[in-house]
## 1
Amino acid sequence: TRHLLSIDDVSADDIAKLFATAAEMHDVQKREVKKLPALRGRTVINLFFEDSTRTRSSFEIAGKWLSADVINLSAKGSSASKGESLRDTVLTVTAMGVDGLVMRHSASGAAHQVAGWLDIPVVNAGDGMHEHPTQALLDCYTLQRQLGGPGSLEGKRIAIVGDLTHSRVFRSNVKALGKLGASVVAVAPPTLMPAGIAEWAKADGFATSYDLDAVLPEVDAVMMLRVQRERMSGGYFPTSREYTVGYGLTRPRLGLLRDGAPILHPGPMNRGLEISPEAADAASSRILDQVSAGVAIRMSVLYHLLAGEESA
Ligand code: CP
């Protein structure tokens, strides 16, 4: 059974195929009637143990536009709140005959664990601080379109800025951007740099910096990340004010970026903390393009995993 649990599961060639299909799906998004018959008769369950706006609704739209039956189940309102285990929950829902499972969970590794229990494709929609592969795919797809189409990420320099410690988006994007030939510079305050990042950066070939002002003029695009206060149990440092002064994409910092350099943020945004309204709403902001690409990428992923060998 094929799964998408990590960017490790896809090669550069696989990504190119997923992007080519996503481009076709993007055209479908512009049509008045958006349904394709590709997954007619298939059933997909979105099982979300953590909150989501973009990922859950875009997987639902993606499945529906491919004519799959889509069921949404969140931990709140399911029997998980009565103490049912993760294993019993996924075995129960798959016993109903679903063909694919999309899952978000706060525990790193949860999707891998579940994939080992099931013989249907599992898509990781975010597992703790580990990975969020479809987010990285939609981010790279958005950047590639902005920077000149297929192959255009090769040799480009991309800054990923913010709360790197808690970010599954960072971990998936470092892998995906690396596979597509981009060079990454990871920027964060020392307190939000993951432990052991120096060895990791050396092994995976990316750079790190504490100095956002020095990095911004050198990059082709900037990806801002959310400060994840809900994952900070022992208090919050630096303070919000210090964070914005040192690491926020403020109005004055926009002037440090190259003309037209795309600004990305996976959402949800803390406006006024890691990103100013002027940056979020700038002409070069691609944040809503990311959301739109999210549907196309998730249609592509569901299609390749579920449509069957003869049509994949
Ligand atoms: N980017 C992202 O995963 O957003 P949601 O948490 O709203 O799904």
## 2
Amino acid sequence: VPVDLHRILEDVVDLSTMAARHKDISLVVDSPTDPVLALGDPDELDRICGNLVSNAVKYTPEGGTVTVTLSRRADRVELSCADTGIGIAPEDLDRLGTEFFRSSNPEAVAQPGTGLGLAIVQRIVERHGGELVVESELGRGSVFRVTLPAA
Ligand code: ATP
Ligand code: MG
């Protein structure tokens, strides 16, 4: 069914606002104001956004920025979640979608987690015929880009 990612993103960001404020992180949303429709399951697309935004806030130190961008690309929509956080080592990038994988980076280990969030994201994205691309640099930050079929 058509799902308005713009609406979903607003709810997800509302949920992360307190955590972000607590760490003095600016949580920025860059999205068209009208609906951005993806084709999929509303709860599952909500989980994608929720996991990516909560990770970004969790793995970004005090005073950083998390920017969530929504855009339309021909027959796709793209959701990107960029942070100025701790980053991910190159050797860890391939393993992010593995269940229970957590980086051994001490700054990441210091945060609580089970290592399931991204495995779930990966699975949902695949089920929707979408794509997940991660770019990251240790100590500088990460960008998670999800493309999904547009409705
Ligand atoms: P949870 O199951 O609660 O989500 P988690 O956050 O540890 O636990 P994932 O969301 O699957 O698990 O993330 C896996 C690992 O990838 C994390 O432990 C962390 O090391 C790394 N990671 C994920 N997102 C980021 C990010 N935005 N910046 C830096 N590292 C990240
Ligand atoms: Mg997580």
## 3
Amino acid sequence: MTELAPSTRSRVLAALRDQRIETASWAFGNSGTRFKVFAQPGVPRDPYEKIADAATVHRFTGVAPTVALHIPWDKVDDYAALAAYAKEQGVALGAINANVFQDDDYKLGSVTNPDPAIRAKALAHLIECVDIMDATGSRDLKLWFSDGTNYPGQDSIRARQDRLASALSATYERLGDDQRMLLEYKLFEPAFYMTDVPDWGTSYAHCLQLGDKAQVVIDTGHHAPGTNIEFIVAFLLRAGKLGGFDFNSRFYADDDLMVGSADPFQLFRIMQEIVSADALNPAAGIAFMLDQCHNIEPKIQAVIRSVMNVQEATAKALLVDAPALAAAQENGDVLEANAALMDAYHTDVRPLLRELRADQGLDPDPIAAFKGSGYYETVQAARVGGEAAGWGA
Ligand code: PSV
Ligand code: MN
Ligand code: MN
């Protein structure tokens, strides 16, 4: 890497030191496609063991101090005790993800179901998730609805929007002053004709109507191929309606692969929008979460690698020469403006990140350190008996 000016170096290192990335409990459990789940030895058997794995990721990276839960996959009797355990392990519980997509009752939808009794059941679960947030101290309720229809005419699109708005509003009313609702959108799947929250515009419109505590969450795997995600980021940031990300990467649909693996340049462009809007610091309130499944690769290492990928994209975004970029843009100098971004993107930031970790008292190479730590061998030996947790349990 060419020598950085000392002021740039300290600005970039300080920003990277403050960065926070939230891991997902379900990334540590067995997962697969609808064709096959390949079980891995040593995977957690309960939410406590998932938290222990998430804490391990934090121990080696220093920037992943919270872990998101999914309810009921992470159902326990005492959520305050779970939060206390997380604290003992050196992490905190993050977003609570509601699950109204894995019950026979929800075949025709959850909060948009034509049957009022099923809608009431779904709403009760959303409210239960806010009760859980009270116990865990979580700030964010993350809502994703698999609701939609498979055939034209199957149900009224407008009536379903009304039902959705009513459930969101009842849940919103239940939020405490320091709690937020993050509404996730997804183009398709499992519904194949029409999804009730298919895009950022739908999520944005509902959040706008609800109020300040409702914001949009962008799952990077939930768009049509070729969608300009950084445009969505920029638009929502400007509107004060970007609540966070579910990071992952994809080649085709909702592949849930490691973030930054399929298209590191896209991740850089997203982080560049974040950095240029001064929205990286946790004080800006954007949640940078991972939503991934590690079907064939070792899970803890994959989560560590994902955290590192986000750090690398962020470091590159922080290296963009903002005054040079602004000047080129102002002068209409297309090539210089583009070069300002490309120069930063092509910088090898790995030495800088190694330096950051050394400064934080961490091993500069988190993957090698994890592999050498014996953690995986220990849990493999300890986690025998009982049932391994899977995506959905
Ligand atoms: C749906 O595809 C989704 O992205 C939602 O965030 C769910 O909560 C999550 O996946 C489950 O992995
Ligand atoms: Mn998601
Ligand atoms: Mn998804």
